[in-house]
Automatic annotation (TrEMBL):
Protein known as: Pyrroloquinoline quinone biosynthesis protein PqqB
Upper lineage: Bacteria, Pseudomonadati, Pseudomonadota, Betaproteobacteria, Burkholderiales
InterPro entries (UniProt xref): Metallo-B-lactamas (IPR001279), RibonucZ/Hydroxyglut_hydro (IPR036866)
Any coiled-coil regions, as ranges: none
Residue ranges constituting the Metallo-beta-lactamase domain according to the UniProt record: 39-248
Pfam family, one: Lactamase_B_2
Organism for this UniProt entry: Sphaerotilus natans subsp. natans DSM 6575
Amino acid sequence: MKLVVLKGGGDAVPLQPIAPALNSTRAPGVLALSGDQMRWVLINMSPAVAGQLGTDARLLRHRGLADAPVRAVVLTDSQVDHVTGLLSLRDGAPIHLYATPAVFEELTHTLPVLPLLQHYCSVHWHVIPVAGESREAVFRVEGQPTLEFTAVATDGPLPLHSARPAAPAVGETIALAVRDVVTGQRLFCARSLLGAGPEALEWMQQADCLLLGDDAIDPRLEAGEQVEAGEQLLAQLDQVGARRKLLMPVPESGLSTAVPAGVLARHGIELTADRMEIDL
């Protein structure tokens, strides 16, 4: 299994400082997965990554990533940063889209990305059956016969446009466990430790590689409180036996802001960068 991180950190510098939002729903980058390094599945799709796929010649070294004849996309939620990039793919290849019933509902009614998209390109919907009492589901992705996916319900954070902010449905946010059935290697990726829930924490213990969005610290906390919260998160991550632990940075937020890079490194935690490659 090969992973490529897209727009998940790197040398981009904002023109102006970014102030932490009080209710931040900013989402870090997109992950590309492949079992054969010829066909790829994208985990979420931001507008920045959609543009990158069409303009970054350095991605051509990954056969079938920039010039895919069919796009497979798995959505972990309906966050704006995770779904609006689908519209930027509207003039390209057919899309096989995998999402839970709750996410499909959001993208059909509250944030109607799918009705718009279907006017432009072929979209094949694949429902991930995490809903109601079913908090986990195993599924396969078109073109990835050697990868087994398990979706695990998590508890947020919800997008600001959520139709049910007070009573979210099961499946509005999920984490993903991916197993390479040939090598046995396991990846676990989640938005963050915040709200991961007991099921997700259990799956983390089985992972060879852990990939987390780095937005698990409330930016409203004072500096000292952020450090304390960071130490608590580090203690949790120390309990996970994965040989690689990676954080996808969020500007001006998260563990990588509260804790010096040297401390993260001593705990075996890496920060991702754009086009970073991980082989499992």
